Amino acid sequence: MLLSLPSLGGTPQRILDDLSTPISFSPDGKQIVFAHRDAGKKDTQLVIAASDGTNRRVIAEREQLAVNGSALSWSGDSALIAVAQYELTKQGLSSVLIFSPQGALLKSFSFQFLVDGITWLPDSSGMFLQVRSRETNFRSQIKFQPYPSGTLQNITNDLNEYRNITVTADGKGLATIQELRSSAVYVGNAPTKWPGEIKQNATPVTSGQAEGGWLQWGVDGKLYFNDEDFHAYRMNPDGSSRARVPDRDTNATFDIGCGPQAIVFALLRDNMLNLFRQDLASGETKQLTFERDAESPACTRDGKTVYYDDYLDGPSLKRVSTSGGKPELVAANSSNGVSLSPDDKRVAFFQFSGTGGEHKVMLVLQNVEDGKQVSAPIYRSRAQPHLDT
Q1: Interval 78-123: pLDDT, tens
Q2: Whole-structure pTM value
Q3: First to last CA, the chain
Q4: Left if phi > 0, otherwise alpha if psi is -120 to 50, otherwise beta: which for 349?
Q5: Could you give the domains of the chain?
Q6: Interior angle at CA 357, CA 351 and CA 362, nearest 5
Q7: Of 56, 64, 145, 327, which one is least surrounded by beta carbons within 10 A?
Q8: Which residues on neighbouring strands pair with residue 52, listed in sequence order?
Q9: Can you say how many angstroms the Cα of residue 202 is from the centroid of all Cα atoms in its chain?
């Protein structure tokens, strides 16, 4: 939802209900540009409206525009609108598309990294890009792309992360937020009987700079987790026998135990993220999915079926047999992974619904055999929420 508020205070006024991203103002402040996407729709709309929300018009429709929200920007000369598009193809991870306010595609830049944010120089001679690349293990950094052409330049290249770029009116200064993350995996005792009091007696079992962004307790009793450098690990709950997954030389993410003697993980190959299964006894590795962005896997206790999010297909929840075969659609418009019941007979997941200005996120319980569902809204909004990968 977009609201306006007088700078000296007053009553907020609703401007727009159906934004999927933040807005970017035209230089004269009279217009705004933003992206809008309805659940179930493949394409995202690039929309211009007056600053009071009236006179809106769709100027372009493309797949996966401005996925991370701030990746659109109106140039200082008012003639150009830049917006990022995720691709995840052999040709590149993302592009920056340059549109005129009338919707004509003027130029595009293809990159071997993900573009999460764009900020023009005031004279429109170039753009600062907030990016995540393989070379920095997908830590967020800043690059500069001259316009309409020129050599891409690194502005930052270090162990920090950078977010929310803004440039001074004269173009001589840049401000951003610098982050150095710190996190660890903690293990504590659960109540002997549920419901019961959860006491804060957990202790850290990892010692890295930033670990545990993805964390799963496997059916084999091991802990599976990631760090911020695109590394996946498997270890005992006390922190012992820590090892890289699938090996010490291969970067991976979303690792899980899958049955008694196998693991599943995601690898980035040809700019596409897909799931692989490795037999722990033989070391044999097999590719399970052939999507552009397969994320957040969950495995049945017998290790025969893997559920996952196909993030660029809706996103949607799918499942595939670990012995191979074509994936099956479980539910459309789902995101943020899936949880299996202890008997593997039901799945729980979040699902988007609604069109226009009315959007909801539903908590859904679905039977595996017959697909019957029960659901309840957990988030209701006049704008679609954005959930990151």
Answers
A1: 999 999 999 999 999 999 999 999 999 999 999 999 999 999 999 9
A2: 0.89
A3: 22
A4: beta
A5: 2-179 (2.120.10.30), 203-381 (2.120.10.30)
A6: 20
A7: 56
A8: none
A9: 29
